[in-house]
Amino acid sequence: MSEAAARRRGRGGGGAARRAERTAVNIETAKYIERNIPLFEVLNEEALDIIEQNAEIVLEEIGVNFVENPKALERWRNAGADVDGERVRIPRGLARELIKTAPSEYTQHARNPERNVVVGGRNLVCAPVYGPPFVRDMDHGRRYATMDDFEKFVKLGYMSRWLHHSGGTVCEPTDIPVNKRHLDMLKAHMTLSDKPFMGSVTDPSRAQDSVDMCGILFGEDFVRDNTVMTSLININSPMTFDEVMMGALEVYAENNQACIISPFIVGGAMAPVSVAGTLTQVLAEVLAGIAYSQIIRPGAPVIFGAFVTSIDMNSGAPTFGTPEASLITYGAGQLARRYGLPFRSAGSFNGSKLPDAQAAYESANSLNLGLLSGVNFMLHSCGWLEGGLVSSFEKFVMDADQLGALQNMARGVDMTENGQAMDAIREVGPGGHYLGCAHTQANFKKSFWRSELLDYKPFEQWAEEGERDTMTLANVKVKQTLSNYQQPALDPGIAEALDAFVAEKKASMPDAFS
Description:
By secondary structure, this protein is of the alpha/beta class. It has a domain at 99-411: Alpha-Beta Barrel (TIM Barrel). The protein is 47% helix and 13% strand. The protein has helices at residues 3-12, 14-23, 45-62, 70-79, 94-98, 147-159, 181-192, 204-218, 220-225, 243-254, 275-296, 323-338, 357-372, 393-410, 417-420, 422-428, 438-447, 459-464, 470-484, 492-507, and strands spanning 33-34, 64-66, 82-84, 87-89, 105-108, 117-120, 123-126, 134-137, 141-144, 230-235, 240-241, 258-267, 302-305, 307-311, 318-319, 343-344, 377-378, 384-385, 390-392. Strands 10, 12, 13, 14, 15 and 16 form a six-stranded mixed beta sheet that branches. Strands 3-4-2-11 form a four-stranded mixed beta sheet. Strand 18 (384-385) and strand 19 form a beta hairpin. Helix 8 packs parallel to helix 10. Residues 1-13 have low confidence and may be disordered. It is an enzyme of class 2 (transferase). Belongs to the trimethylamine methyltransferase family. InterPro entries: MttB-like_sf, MTTB_MeTrfase. This is Methyltransferase.
């Protein structure tokens, strides 16, 4: 038994906890992806040098803004930056020196140690959609999200074999006051799933609530010494670091919890229209953000983030799965590896209103891009619809199914004696077939990835069953999965303590919906 598990069991529960563990259904989750295939690189060494030099010029001559955050300005001044009002100009080489203390990889612990993930290296951790205010399904259409929707997404994520992480704001439950909903969301992740999860970043006090609730779940000593959350800190591109996100970053860095430092790039609006220009801005923003995290606490775990899309110059709408966004993501991956930092990008990005062909094409481009660009933490890996405005139940299970294809692709080519299959080739010889040979019989169950959703039946059987398209099959899969859901065991003492914390926090403040 792990130290954390022993502490949880010893603190809370005795017989009730042990009975709950014995009767719990074990949900199979694949280990995070470990790549055994080469990464795709689009920039040569000269191009990387130019982008790096240009980013240093941006930081030194143009600078970045840390707004409404006097403490951050003072920290930068003490670190050697030139601070003029809210503008911070970072001398050449200072940011690069500061980020040297950031770890190249870290372990995020789950309450079930079997679900721990290692972020960095050649690993890829998949987490679900994050942030949409709307949800959609075939039965009720598009609507504002509720807490009931949120809990259903957490359950789907827990039951999804290829999803390694429970995520964070899988949808925005608008039926709960803004200043209190983070408490319900965190409790849902902590109690309805035993996979790793993300903390709140919408206010520094909510980040602190996240740390405090993790102290209840894992034990305060364990949280102090280990990373149990990976949370998203967006930069207001171009080159602006606001007090809310930086306040959350400060809380998490001080408590040794991981942050994704991620520019929010819509090419042509928040960054230049050119690939090299956007990469220069991305690198400058990431260097400044990660350097600031290391000023707060050297060694605090961080991820080099890059949310990248382009803009339709006719409508102004963001576009996804485009060649330009792919080139930027590939390049950003090279830059992250150049600095020895974990990388976050890609996902099931699309601009479609429904889980249709557009959604599938654009998402497939973005998901495969994530695998080949060296992404280590893929937020939005399933469920994203309508440019991130909607969390779709059907799209969630469609995407989660396809993550299995990424898992198998990442394994690479088996060159063992069994993989070479010379015995099969000798046995069958010219003109035969391999269906009944010994090698096929020994390997067929694990040789090919098989979708748990897509239809491969003969036309006649498909027609007899109602000519169901993929969205219809996904709707059935959502209902089946939720009906089969069983909550993972949790020490009753911990569950009671979480309930009490949430109730006390909610009672301490009036409702606010803005």
